[in-house]
Amino acid sequence: MIYTVTLNPSIDYVVHVEQVELGQINRTNKEFKFPGGKGINVSRILERLDIPTTALGFLGGFTGDFIQSALQQEKIKTNFTKITKDSRINIKLKSDTETEINGSGPTISPTEIKDFLKTFDSLTTNDTVVLAGNRPNSLPKDFYQQLITQIQEKNAHFVIDTTGDDLLNALPYKPLLIKPNNDELADLYQTNISSFSDLLRYGKKLLEDGPEHVIISMAGDGALLFTKEGIYQADAIKRPLKNSVGAGDSMIAGFVGQYSLNHDPVEAFRWGVACGSATAFSDDLAQKELILALLPEVKITKIEEEI
Length: 307
Fold this sequence. Notes:
By secondary structure, the chain is an alpha/beta fold. Helices cover 35% and strands 24% of the residues. The protein has helices spanning 38-48, 61-73, 110-117, 143-153, 164-168, 182-188, 196-208, 247-262, 265-280, 288-294, and strands at 2-6, 10-16, 30-36, 53-60, 77-78, 81-83, 88-94, 98-101, 128-132, 157-161, 177-178, 213-217, 223-227, 230-234, 300-304. The strands form three sheets. Strands 1, 4, 5, 6, 9 and 10 form a six-stranded parallel beta sheet that branches. Helix 8 (247-262) packs antiparallel against helix 9 (265-280). The longest helix is centred in the C-terminal third of the chain and has 16 residues, at 247-262.
């Protein structure tokens, strides 16, 4: 089973406005409501690829009910921990440029935290847990480390997709995969990355610091995979960009889902690029048909030998 953890789920309220005028009344010409959160996005893609997944996290209030219902409609298995406060709403404003206004999220009580931790009791050595997204301020600063410790006590694998200290502190635990973009990689090492050689240098350093695999997404320039067997580059697939929300989560889903089937990191990388690209070309997360259509277009080149 691939479990996904979303500590701060949301309703993603996507609104299209032809031209935003601040201080004035603006009318939408299209709007959508989706269950949101990085781990939830991973589960939604995995379900579309027919790979078993269970979504974990905290849900509360009328917003939590909407998220639960939406996932049930997609036939996604869930085991959320119920909380008293409302889950958040994130606004994704699409106009001349994309603007996001994300809610801070609910306060989670010590009892609710304890209930959530019990959901890890059934993990086995064949399971993978994807820890994705930001940690609400009401959770302890070492909460991700607590989860990682529980996961490793069960000899399960984990992937982590977050930023800052939560990511940095997870590296020594040897995650199966991490996927920073250029800016997140620079922030991680408090440096500037201004060239392709910088990317290679810090990607190698990141691999040496613990993870089994590292993917660095470069948006319109493709992506890089770092493994102990070598470095691989995938060229970007060219299509009109519709949506950047969830593209990185889709890439993780494609990689982790395929890796769980054959343990081939290069083939998993191919699927990750196809899934991420397909979401970037869609209004919502990608559908299976587009992912399969793009898969033959993913060109991967080995650019450096064993690290």
